[in-house]
Amino acid sequence: MITLKALGALLDYPTPELQSALDEVEQAIGEERAIPAAELEGVNVFIERLRRSDIMDAQEYWIGLFDRSKRLALHLYEHSHGESRDRGQAMVNLALIYRMNGFELDAAEMPDYLPLFLEFLSVIPEVHARRYLTDAIEIIEALRIRLEERHSTYAALLGALVTLAHREADDAEVEAILASEPEDPKDLQELDREWAEDPVDFTAGSALKDCSYSGDSVRSRAAQLARAGA
Question: CB–CB of 69/191 below 8 Å?
Fold first, then answer.
């Protein structure tokens, strides 16, 4: 589903290359007709605003939203696992699912980064893509609500994603996500301290070197994930 890749590109850090490709992005989304008309209008408004923006202003705005706020982080497991130890294993499992579908990660890429996740979904069968998207729908809806609170046009992109899932988000689960996350840091120094962590490498082999799965058990676990997902 090309719409998922297009929405992921729009959510990612804005670049001159993306800005110059907006006509193609808009055309691809319109031709696929996966997004309902009401939500499509909001996406088109976002595209037009980005088209007319100074790229440096657009980049500064994106950084202010997504890089300086854990409550708006585009890393899915930041919202579902936080700082718990389960987060690392969830990342390894997701990276395995990517690889079993022929989708390789670069060393610096985090598998739960939403634009990357959407790119992966765009290359697997639609039925599986919608199911994986549904698994993350409460997080996506929580992000949409937070962006709407800030009157950000990025909220339209999350709203469009919500319509592509198999079901609506569970209100109680969304409220739990919104209520459980800490307040944003007061300054950049505090933010740097909160984000400081050891680098994680998810390339083939290295992603599993410190994992409890190894050898035949890795292949068995990967096969189970592949059968369960795609």
Answer: no
Residue spans of the domains in the chain: they are: 2-229
* pLDDT tens profile 159-168: 999 999 989 9
Single out the residue of 151, 65, 34, 52 nearest to residue 7, CA to CA. 34
Cβ neighbours of residue 168 under 8 Å, at least 6 residues apart? 137, 162
Is pTM, for the whole model, over 0.85? no
Counting as low any pLDDT under 50, the low residues of the chain are 194-195, 197-230
Report CA-CA distances (Å) from 93 to 78, 104, 159, 224: 15, 14, 27, 11
In this structure, are residues 147 and 158 in contact, taking their beta carbons and an 8 Å threshold? yes
Cα separation, 215 vs 168, whole angstroms:
40
Q: Are 29 and 40 in contact (CB under 8 A)?
A: yes
